[in-house]
Amino acid sequence: MTVAPGTLVLAGTPIGDIADAPPRLAEELAGADVVAAEDTRRLRRLTQALGVQPKGRVVSYFEGNEAARTPELVEALLGGSRVLLVTDAGMPSVSDPGYRLVAAAVEKDIKVTAVPGPSAVLTALALSGLPVDRFCFEGFLPRKAGERLSRLREVAGERRTLVYFEAPHRLDDTLAAMAEVFGAERRAAVCRELTKTYEEIKRGPVGELAEWAAEGVRGEITVVVEGAPEKAEELDADELVRRVRVREEAGERRKEAIATVAVEAGVPKREVFDAVVAAKTAQKPV
Known about the structure:
By secondary structure, the protein is an alpha/beta fold.
C-alpha cells in the first residue's frame, strides 16, 4: 500500500516574549511526529513555558548538521510523518536553518505549511518610523570589513527601506560602514531586544548611531535603514567632481566630501569616488 507523504510545518516562535507564541504552536509541538529544533535545549524551555510535551521524536537541526539531516527528515516526510521545524526565534529559513529542507520537500512534492509567528524583521520595520510601503531584507552582512563594504555598495542606491540583522559586537563597525557608504545623514533605527524587558529603539542619522554603538551594545539587534533618496537630477561625472572640489576648497576632507556629494546626488559613493579618480588621472583639477 502506498503511503501518502506527510507535511512539513514551519513554526514561528517568539522573538522575546513567550506570550507572543501563537496558539497553534502548542498544538503542533504536541502532535508532530518529528520535531526538528535548532537548539533542543531552547526547545525544552519553550515547551515547558507553553505547558506541552512533544509526543514525537525530537532531533536537532542547525547550521552544522543541516545538510546531513535534511535527507533523514525528507525520508520521514515521505513515510507520512508530520515534521515540525522550529528555530530559536522567529520564522525558520529566514536567516535561520530551514531553506534547505523546504527546497528538498518541494522537490519531492511534499506539502509545506506554516504556523505564522512573530517576526523581528516586520516588528523592527513597523517600529522604525521609516517608510514601510516597500522594503528589502538583507539578513546578516559579511563579517570581513572589505566584503561588508562591497555588499553595502551594492545597495547604496536602493530606494526601498533596508532591514539587517547584526551581532551586537559588530554593530559599531557595521553602522560606521553604512555611514561611509550611504552617507552619515541617512536615517536609521537600531532595534534592540524586541518584545523583551529591555527593548530599545534608537533612531537617528546612521553616523550618530555609529558613535552611540561604539560605547557598546548588547542583545539581539535588527537595523532598519532608510532607502536612498530620489535623484533630483542626473549629474554627470564632471559635475560630481566639481561638487567635491567645492567642498574640499571649503575645508572638507576628500573622503567626507565624496560621501556628502554621493548622498546629495542620490548615487553610490563608489560612483563619485571613481569620477574623482578618473579626473585626477586625466589631470583635471580636483
